Amino acid sequence: MSLQTYSEHGVRFLFPPDWELHEESQGATLAVTVSSPETSFWSLWLMQDRPNPQAMLDSALTAFEDDYDNVDLYRSETEICEYPALKCEVEFVSLELINSATILAFRTGRFSVLILTQGTDHELEYSGPILEAITESFECDVDDDIMKA
User: Fold this and answer.
1) Range of 92's domain?
2) Is residue 149 assigned to a domain?
3) Is residue 18 scored above 70 in pLDDT?
4) What is the pLDDT of residues 77-118, one digit of tens each?
5) In this structure, are residues 13 and 137 in contact, taking their beta carbons and an 8 Å threshold?
6) What is the pTM of this model?
7) Assigned domain for 148 exists
8) How large a percentage of the chain has pLDDT more than 70?
9) CB of 85 within 8 A of CB of 53?
10) What is the 3-state secondary structure (H, E, C) of the chain?
11) Considering only CA atoms, which of 119, 107, 103 is closest in space to residue 62?
12) Mean predicted lDDT score pLDDT of the chain
């Protein structure tokens, strides 16, 4: 299968050709989402005002906890584009289906980045490896002249 490439705004990633891409800009924030033919999706937010990654992660987690009753969180750290990143695996129930999400948050010299992947557990058997591959293909311009935040 031939993959499509998104390459705009200093970031690049690969995604399946049968997934729909949507881009939306609001002020200093750009949101890019690729959605599976079912309900799984991969979303990226680029925030030019460079908020703190912990604050972005906490805000996303608060939204999950406000919207769903039983939310399980599993926090860790990783690295993306040579930048340290905060990571949280989220499990929750929606419409009687178990759902899983992964949230990644980090900051570069140009913008802060939040990546969210989500799907129902039965869909993730198929879409989970695709969501992981999209994240693994993600690249951003590394700002050599600006100290990593």
Assistant:
1) 4-140
2) no
3) yes
4) 999 998 999 999 999 998 788 999 999 999 999 999 999 999
5) yes
6) 0.92
7) no
8) 94
9) yes
10) CCCEEEEECCEEEEECCCCEEEEEEECCEEEEEEECCCCCEEEEEEECCCCCHHHHHHHHHHHHHHHCCCCEEEEEEEEECCEEEEEEEEEEEECCEEEEEEEEEEECCCCEEEEEEEEEHHHHHHHHHHHHHHHHHCEECCCCCCCCC
11) 103
12) 92
In a domain, 109, yes or no: yes
Residue type, 119: G
* CATH number of the domain enclosing 86: 3.40.1000.10
Cα angle vertex 131, ends 102, 144, to 5°? 75
> Which residues, 6 or more positions from 144, have their beta carbon under 8 angstroms from its beta carbon?
none
More confident residue, 134 or 94: 134
Q: Confidence band (pLDDT; 50, 70, 90) for 142?
A: low
Q: How many domains does the chain have?
A: 1
Q: Would you say residue 146 lies in a domain?
A: no
